[in-house]
Amino acid sequence: MKLTPDVDRVSNAALQRPTGVVLKGQFTEVWRSEKGKIKGLRLRTETQTYTIKLPKYLRPMLVRELAPHAFVQVWACHEDDQWRGINIMPLSDCEAIALRDAWQLQESVSVTEPPAEVAPAVGAAPGSSQKLCVKVCRKGKCFKQGGRQIMQSLEAAIAEDSNLQHIDVEGVGCLKACKKGPNIQLSHSKRVISGVTPENALALVAKHA
Length: 209
What we know:
The chain is an alpha+beta fold. The chain has 2 domains: 19-93, CATH 2.40.50.140; 132-208, Glutaredoxin (3-Layer(aba) Sandwich), CATH 3.40.30. It is 29% helix and 29% strand.
């Protein structure tokens, strides 16, 4: 019995298998299907932006564990004209800082491009465009009473609703209203919004935007 043809087929299959690479960059947004279902992520690197499809078991972490604009590394392979992720994890603080500093250095010597259009903010007048950042206190009493859960609730709502993609969520230090916490603050206002819960966070953002 001759085994050579089978061995050749196995060898050829191994040679044709896509080679994986590690991509390090910034998680810019959740990639969704036309029906709004989460399919993967868009990853900005120093040279380009990748659209990467993730396996189903990894997709929930995009809204539960990764903050918008987090620096991550993705193990991926290019197959059938599409990038497919194998695993994903956040970069360490040191790696993220080094990568961000390297990008800023590159951008400082590059030609400035016109800013991209931004979707209207919650409560913004029709035709206007405004990026909105929700600052969530994650210190002291606010943290103990649900600061992290408030961030996760807002990030999940934003990831699920295409009309909220202009909103960013950022964990910050003390907002000086500990007795009334948990607290948030919107980027366009100095006013601190107190008594926030994971359940009412989005409604309060819409009310005060």
